Cysteine-rich receptor-like protein kinase 10 (Populus alba x Populus x berolinensis), 675 residues
Amino acid sequence: MDSLKFSTVLLSLLSLAIITQAQDPTFLYNNCPNTTTFTRNSTYQANLNLLLSSLSSNATRNNINGFYNVSAGQDPDAVYGMFLCRGDVSNSVCRNCVNFAAKDVLEKCPIEKVAMIWYDECELRYSNRNIFSTVDQDFTLFMMSPNNVTVQPDRFNQLVATTINDIAARAASAPSGAKKFAVQQMNYTGIQKLYTLVQCTPDLSTPDCSRCLEGAISKLGNCCNRKQGGRVIFPSCYFRYELYEFYNATAAAEAAPPPPPVALSPPPASGPETIRKGKGGVSTVLIIAILIPVTVALVLFCLGFCFLSRRAKRNKYYAQENDVGNEITNVESLQFDLSSIQEATNHFSADNKLGEGGFGEVYKGTLPNGQAIAVKRLSKGSGQGAAEFKNEVVLVAKLQHRNLVRLFGFCLEGDEKILVYEFVPNKSLDYFLFDPEKQGLLDWSKRYKIIGGIARGLLYLHEDSRLRIIHRDLKASNILLDGDMNAKVSDFGMARIFGVDQTQGCTSRIVGTYGYMSPEYAMHGQFSVKSDAYSFGVLILEIISGKKNSSFYQTGGAADLASYAWKHWRDGTPLEVMDPTLADTYSRNEVIRCIHIGLLCVQEDPASRPPMATVVLLLNSYSITLPLPQEPAFFLHSRTDQGSIPSKEFFADKSKSNAVPYSGDEGSITEVYPR
Ligand SMILES: *[C@@H]1O[C@H](CO)[C@@H](O)[C@H](O)[C@H]1NC(C)=O
Ligand SMILES: *[C@@H]1O[C@H](CO)[C@@H](O)[C@H](O)[C@H]1NC(C)=O
Ligand SMILES: *[C@@H]1O[C@H](CO)[C@@H](O)[C@H](O)[C@H]1NC(C)=O
Ligand SMILES: *[C@@H]1O[C@H](CO)[C@@H](O)[C@H](O)[C@H]1NC(C)=O
Ligand SMILES: *[C@@H]1O[C@H](CO)[C@@H](O)[C@H](O)[C@H]1NC(C)=O
Ligand SMILES: *[C@@H]1O[C@H](CO)[C@@H](O)[C@H](O)[C@H]1NC(C)=O
Ligand SMILES: *[C@@H]1O[C@H](CO)[C@@H](O)[C@H](O)[C@H]1NC(C)=O
């Protein structure tokens, strides 16, 4: 709830700031996921500048109907962009808004490849993917008046829904080339009138515009129940209604003539009426209620912070988010044809193969628009039917965070099940970390950033996304690195997609990698956010030491990396654990703090491991005193004592550094601890 208040305050401040300069458009919101970025002075940036100046210069033309789309550059650096002005605004207001947006967006989204920015008067967006003539509903902005209607609220709701539905049909059926825009004024009470407006970007076809607006209207109940004003805004279309005249009715009537009067079947005492009233009404304070599906880092941090103190209140907020987040992404928009995947990967050629994981082989591919993708061809034997598979993919595709590898979609044809991911250029963490030649490339600041990135990605999976995802197989080879060496967690949600039973947080099929698995998960199949915390602790220790947890089995001495680190900690020599190649670059405080956090995470008692929200907080703060870590579990001992598995399998180091010993499919270690 705090973050909600925070956005309200922020927005009010912004509105105030804007009112004082009458010329500037009224800023509403911007969305630029920090997941794909460009580097400064890159070709992409040059193309983007070209695009923005072309949008601005074309906004001065008078014959463009308040909309223009243009692309700049060639793939893979092509930029596609468009602006849309509200149907009733004059050319000069439109021009002014677009010019302002073109500068403002670069301040708000300086390095993001994909950005959208909204004002009352216009919208501007661009992307590295072709966004023309396609319905984009991947992001939703809800805005609502804080005031409730008091007279006949149910009739009001119905009046709003009926009117918006009606004008949506009218806007969608506008001929191609014309504005897809409509307004309508209705009597509500003797003195109050309802003003409604809908608009699509005119590059959409009639059915697409209808579909987009239907999607928006279906959110009415979520955002605007009994509210005096409200908006649902998608990138491709939006509606707005208020009890005051927020558009210029004269200009609107010129832009989109109202239809001949027809029976609307409205509630009694209402009906279409001629437009006459001048500008009036007080600007309503609007609240940005919920943003889906991208969680802005700011909100994320705030939520992480709130988590510690305000667990109960936060849940309420999420309950609300859950209600509305359900059908934002539709299945069709995620589905790829097998033929296009085959083309992209050169028919799964061996040259394109990136590696092999527990769930199948991974190939690199390139889509016709130049977008690089990673294609995971799932091995047969998934427990999922087609419908469940699609459901899970849609859910997992909604998880978007800059420290998670993005799932673009899937392909399901015949017995092929394929997942299509964002391609992350710099391979995986283990490729650098455990290679004596390459580990020097990871200096301390990079490693520290990677630790922070993994923690934030996990926090999002555990707490801040709409699903609670427990990764279950966190390890160095599942941490991918982007061009700037930012960590991106991969392979999350696989248990769901693959259909591994996970009903009570207790499973008979263990999906994971020995060495990273918490004792309670490995032995009893009990998984929770705390088993991920354990794997995270092992990862931190590996990142600091540059040694594989599994290598300790061979070297003898300490049972494993965790015990080795703990012994040094107890003896007051924690820095002995550190990778000697860090010698010149490390910050003593940061290293010691990270070792400390790592040791807290690998404690035997799951309850004493910190949740990821706390880990993120600890990584960002030097003033918090950490508890002393308990001695880690002597995992190996208790396992070998049981004698149920050969210990060499246990720390399976088959020197395929990228191989994923998901035991689920091989059956060798899996069923050892059934429950
Ligand atoms: C986005 O990512 C860049 C580099 O990866 C980082 O410097 C920047 O702080 C991030 N922005 C936000 C809002 O998180
Ligand atoms: C980008 O180019 C400008 C001039 O062309 C130069 O001043 C600036 O340092 C460059 N920035 C980077 C990050 O290379
Ligand atoms: C409009 O955009 C085109 C590119 O699409 C560009 O060539 C032209 O200069 C722009 N400006 C005007 C005023 O047409
Ligand atoms: C605008 O988009 C359409 C497709 O909807 C495309 O055919 C056209 O070339 C685009 N205009 C420009 C100037 O790129
Ligand atoms: C509007 O109604 C909701 C419940 O329906 C209530 O929580 C909220 O406080 C009301 N707002 C105002 C301004 O009265
Ligand atoms: C509304 O639009 C009309 C014609 O487009 C214009 O003459 C008038 O000044 C506008 N009114 C306001 C209040 O902007
Ligand atoms: C709407 O209300 C006005 C009075 O404010 C009235 O003159 C008009 O007839 C009403 N329109 C309809 C369709 O009921």
In short: Residues 34, 37, 297, 484, 486 surround 2-acetamido-2-deoxy-beta-D-glucopyranose (ligand 1) (CB under 6 Å). Residues 495 and 511 are 7 Å apart (CA to CA). The radius of gyration is 28 Å. Residues 1-22, 262-329, 501-506, 635-675 have pLDDT under 50 and may be disordered.
